[in-house]
Amino acid sequence: MQGNQKAFGELLSRYHSTAYAVVRGVLGDSDDVEDVVQLVYVKIYKGLASFRGDARLSTWIYRIARNESINAVKKRRLDTTPVEDVVLAAPSAAGPEAGLAQRELSEQVETALERLDEGQRMAIELRYMGERSYEEIAETMGIPLGTVKTYIHRGKAQLKKVLESAALKDR
């Protein structure tokens, strides 16, 4: 808050996983995630001097990340990319079998995560990607601890159901 760059760097290191998980929870597996996380960092930097401390810092950062993510979703709906501007990724140098199973599993998990409601997805991503405790998730999301446990339990059950269904289709 006093302009110490090193302290700000430590703050970003400490809360990066929270910001990333929140943004990813709203945007899903999107190329925009890193860009939005950078916008979150800018908002934190600019707003830190006005942070009153009414809420915990993690809650304040969560809200900034969530708001920036929602703004990005709204903007994405308005943006369209002409077909001529789409750049296709070059084929990988490795053979097609290299990492195929991993990519397929990642895609199935992403698809399954997208099917969860926003609260479940965000709680799961904060827990497993953000490595946050249930208590931290409750505080960050501003919901009761019991609700966090319910979101994670139901979300995991839904993920399991979707992934098992996908596995049966592949057989």
Descriptive overview:
With 171 residues, the protein is mostly helical. The protein has two domains: 1-83, Rna Polymerase Sigma Factor, Chain: A (Orthogonal Bundle), CATH 1.10.1740; 97-164, Orthogonal Bundle (Arc Repressor Mutant, subunit A), CATH 1.10.10. It has helices at 5-27, 33-47, 57-78, 100-115, 118-128, 134-141, 145-170. Helix 3 (57-78) packs across helix 6. It is globular. The N and C termini lie far apart (57 Å).
List SSEs in N-to-C order.
HHHHHHH
Helix content: over 70%
Structural class: mainly alpha
Report how far the terminal alpha carbons are from each other.
57 Å
Q: Given this structure, which CATH class of the largest domain is correct?
A: Mainly Alpha
Low-confidence stretches: 80-91
What is the gyration radius calculated from CA atoms? 18 Å
Q: Return the domain count.
A: 2
Number of strands: 0
**Number of discrete helical segments:** 7
β-strand amount:
under 5%
CATH topology annotation of the largest domain: Rna Polymerase Sigma Factor, Chain: A
**Apparent shape:** globular
Q: Can you name the CATH architecture of the largest domain? A: Orthogonal Bundle
Biggest sheet: strands, sense, closure?
none
Mean pLDDT reading: 78
Short description:
The protein has helices spanning 5-27, 33-47, 57-78, 100-115, 118-128, 134-141, 145-170.
